[in-house]
Amino acid sequence: KEEMEAVAKTDKYVEKAYNNLVELSADELKRLEYEEREKAIRDYNHQMKYQFLDGKEEGIEKGIKEGKTKNIISLVIKKLQKAKSREQIADELEETLDTIDSICNIAEKYAPEYDIDKIHEEYQSQLE
């Protein structure tokens, strides 16, 4: 104990922390409240970290899926510009005819500029 007091006197912050520790140790109720508060803080921080990591993973998955869909849309547009039939496009891209039909129906509204972002947005809203 004397060693701790000596160390505490070397720095005002350490001394304050030491005094708080002595006070909390002396009062059982305060110590229990302190421990409960610390546990709540740890639990909160753990939950925030878990939710952050979960959200990050979900965001990555969503980004990959969006990228794949935009790539398919881009390929469909290129094949439409070459006047390929929907059946040919579905066969070449190894996608279902329903998927290609949906994309083509939307893409035709945006011809000849074919705004991929707008086509993607409309296609996604159809899927929901």
Secondary-structure blueprint of this entry?
Layout: H1 2-8, H2 12-26, H3 28-81, H4 86-93, H5 97-109, H6 116-127
- Number of H/I helices: 6
What proportion of the residues form beta strands (DSSP E)? under 5%
Q: What is the helical fraction, as a range of percent?
A: over 70%
Tell me the quaternary state. Answer: single chain
Question: What number is the mean pLDDT?
Answer: 90
What is the 3D shape?
Answer: rod-shaped
**Radius of gyration over C-alpha positions, nearest whole angstrom:** 31 Å
The low-confidence parts are none
Helix-strand string:
HHHHHH
| Secondary structure: number of strands | 0
Distance between the termini: 67 Å
What does this structure look like?
There is one protein chain. The chain is an all-alpha fold and 128 residues long. The chain has 6 helices and no strands. The protein is rod-shaped and about 90 Å long. The mean pLDDT is 90.
Task: Quickly list its features.
mainly alpha
